[in-house]
Amino acid sequence: MFKIFKITAILEGISYLTLFSNMLFIKPNHFELYHTLLYPIGMSHGILFIGYVLLAILLKKSQKWDLKTFIIILIASLIPFGTFYVEKKYLENV
After folding, report:
1. How confident is the model at residue 36, as a pLDDT?
2. Helix 39-62 crosses helix 2-25 at what angle (to 10 degrees)?
3. To the nearest whole number, what is the mean pLDDT of the chain?
4. CA angle, corner 26, sides to 37 and 32, nearest 5?
5. Concatenated DSSP letters for 4-35?
6. Exposed/middle/buried for 48, CB within 10 Å: 0-12, 13-18, 19+?
7. DSSP state of 85
8. Alpha-carbon distances, residue 34 vs 14, 42, 66, 88 (angstroms)
9. What percent of the chain has pLDDT over 70?
10. Who's near 38: CB < 8 A, 6+ residues apart?
């Protein structure tokens, strides 16, 4: 399950950055382009985000993360490049 969490962390970070970069270039009034491009990216990011949080909750006890580490891992999912930092600092050691 730990390997799945590492993969989910990387994919969640990529989907987050892809969503942000596409929102910068696509104006909100392009409704057709929204449904063809941004909707699938947003949906996949939402699923990956939920998976990231659920897997972090499930792995907290087995990885013996203290409360500070656990909160950092959860907050990292809200910050661009945060999951890459978590993967490098907290998940690479194991």
Report:
1. 78
2. 150
3. 86
4. 50
5. HHHHHHHHHHHHHHHHHHHHHHS-TT-HHHII
6. buried
7. H
8. 19, 10, 41, 33
9. 93
10. 19, 22, 23, 26
Number of compact structural domains in the chain: 1
Q: Please give the average per-residue pLDDT across 17-46, as a whole number.
A: 80
Specify the pLDDT at position 44. Answer: 92
Do residues 8 and 73 make contact, with C-beta atoms less than 8 angstroms apart?
Answer: no
Q: Which two tokens stand for residue 36?
A: 């063809």
Contacting residues for 13 by C-beta, under 8 A, at least 6 apart = 80, 81, 82, 83, 84, 87
Range of the domain at 48: 2-91
pLDDT of residue 75: 94
16: Cβ contacts below 8 Å, ≥ 6 apart: 45, 49, 80, 83
Residue 70 has a pLDDT of 93
- 49-73 pLDDT per residue, tens: 999 999 999 999 888 889 999 999 9
